[in-house]
Design a protein that fits this description.
- The complex is a heterodimer.
- Chain A has 14 helices and 14 strands.
- Chain A is α/β, with parallel strands linked by helices.
- Chain A has 2 domains: 4-136, Rossmann fold; 140-393, no CATH class.
- In chain A, the strands form 3 sheets. Chain A has a 7-stranded parallel beta sheet with strand order 10-11-9-8-12-13-14, sandwiched between helices. Chain A has a 4-stranded parallel beta sheet with strand order 4-3-5-6, sandwiched between helices. In chain A, strands 2-1-7 form a 3-stranded antiparallel beta sheet.
- In chain A, helix 1 packs across helix 5 (112-131) and helix 2 crosses helix 11.
- The mean pLDDT of chain A is 96.
- Chain B has one domain (2-103): Archaeosine Trna-guanine Transglycosylase, Chain: A, domain 4 (Roll), CATH 2.30.130.
- In chain B, the strands form 3 sheets. In chain B, strands 1-2-5-8 form a 4-stranded antiparallel beta sheet, with no helix packed on it. In chain B, strands 6-7-9 form a 3-stranded antiparallel beta sheet, with no helix packed on it.
- In chain B, 9% of the residues lie in helices and 29% in strands.
- Chain B is globular, with a radius of gyration of 14 Å.
- The chains are: A alpha/beta, B mainly beta.
- Chain A binds chain B through residues 153-158, 187-189, 214, 217-218, 221-223, 225-227, 230-239, 242-243, 308, 326-328, 345-347, and chain B through 11, 14, 16, 24-28, 49-53, 65, 67-68, 70-73, 85-87, 90-100.
Chain lengths: 398, 108
Amino acid sequence: MIAMRGYPRSDGRKGIRNTVVVGYLVECAHHVAREIAIPFREADVHVIGFPGCYPNAYAETMMERLCTHPNVGAVLLVSLGCESFNKYGLERAVRASGRPVKTLVIQAAGGTRKSIAEGRDFVSEQRLLLDEAEMVPMAASELVVGTVCGGSDGTSGITGNPAAGRAFDLLIADGAACIFEETGELIGCEHIMAARAVTPALGAELEASVAKAARYYATLGYGSFAAGNADGGLTTIEEKSMGAYAKSGASPISGLIKPGDIPPRGGLYLLDVVPDGEVRFGFPNINDNAEIAELIACGAHAVLFVTGRGSVVGSAISPVVKICANPETFRRMDDDMDIDAGAILEGRATLDQVGAAIRDLVLDLGRGKRTRSEALAHQEFILTYKSFEPIGPACLPT
Amino acid sequence: MAEAKRAVSDGRLLLLGSGDNVLVARQRIAAGEAMSIEGRAAVLAVDLPIGHKLARRAIAAGEKIIKYGAPIGVATQAIAPGEHVHVHNVRSDYTPTYHLTAEQGSGA
């Protein structure tokens, strides 16, 4: 079997991609960032950014973790010039990581046209250098893998989610760190989940994170539940939760992290995505891509995305593996899907077979294979305002 | 009758937990099809899309709906064996379920 290979980074992590990130620091710089990247849209140049003009510690942490993600090789920051984002701090952090970085300030560069030209010069120079970069052997134990479900239906909890859970168990047995999330979609599962924590104090933290989510959503008046979930046969948030929970597999839970926290070692981690404190800034995650961006900010090299209704999304920075839970959806949208988990419902494959196929595909991503969403140039990204307190001492037992 | 029985005892329905009071459709099942629910004949009143639920036995108003061995909501009315179990006869114990129908789209 061919070994996995990765790009070595100064912090000891390795990347399975060597992407140039073009990061806009306010919506006013988004167009210029997009125009810079357009000629490179199929050459691993991805646009990310934060639209807000006013400061937000969460967004600054997210941007820093994303710009220093192991799958990222070089960074161009695009600033209008007058926004509040701390571009100096971000540039310093990226430079300290050993990555080439340039901050392009549109107001100083002389406007749109000049900024686009200057930005494209930098990107094309970096692309050439990165394409020559040396790769080194990489082990499964060096991987961080996230999972999310979106466009869920009544098949998700029977096929795709438990299959993703089996894949997690296999990856964790090989030493990888795996992250599941959306505490708002674990409502009703908190007690059985807490029983899997490696310490009772961590179990209490897991339960508290779900109680926080339930309070948050109750204030908003809606659960983490979209109209299409009901069309697909899901009746309540607790039914959706039971299905979503299956993504976590059966391994012990090693820790509770928040967006931007990197798992310290292999094992299974819950990512708490619901903000702390009073309800501010609206919904915790306004769509699936907000959750994917948070998993990637925690270091995920790849994200397993289970869908029943049929999501087409990918992401900037890390490949998204699309696991289709519903066999009817797979037949209709097979170009977008990497894994046919609906085969389980039709007796064409077992849960264990599909779980192993997902694990194998993740490892293949480290041997040059591309996902369907990567091949289709999906590079969705969204980042909005949130606020978090740091995790407590019981969250990462040693 | 023999026809109806053959159409049933059914690979089409999935029991996820031994104590569940709902069954899940493994495939689309058309309205009017005969089924056997726990050995008793029933006729499906509505089209049941893949992944949707029907009652495994009579469920009283106020009773918990059990799927995967866990409560997933509460019946808002009495539900007969073989009847579609969904947003029209179940509510969440946490937050209300938001759903859209084509009728809403036409202003009804």
